[in-house]
Amino acid sequence: MNLEHLSKYKNTRQLICAMAAYSGTSILGPLLLIGGVGYFLDKMFNTNPILLIVSVIIAFIVTNILLYKKVKVLINKVKS
Question: Taking the domains of the chain in order of start, what are their residue ranges?
Fold first, then answer.
């Protein structure tokens, strides 16, 4: 990840707002995408709600991985 764009933020408040927006989309995106696939597969195979629950768990794992990578990069950026 290239974080050179962080220098465009004039203060900490702007950076926090940007990180909150990133966090929100990192949570909502995988949940809607993967959860939607699980919901569709549940309807298709008539397995309510097993595949939806599995897909939400997978979305939770993907979300944590995305947020972990972003926080790790930010910590390294702050240290240097």
Answer: 31-80
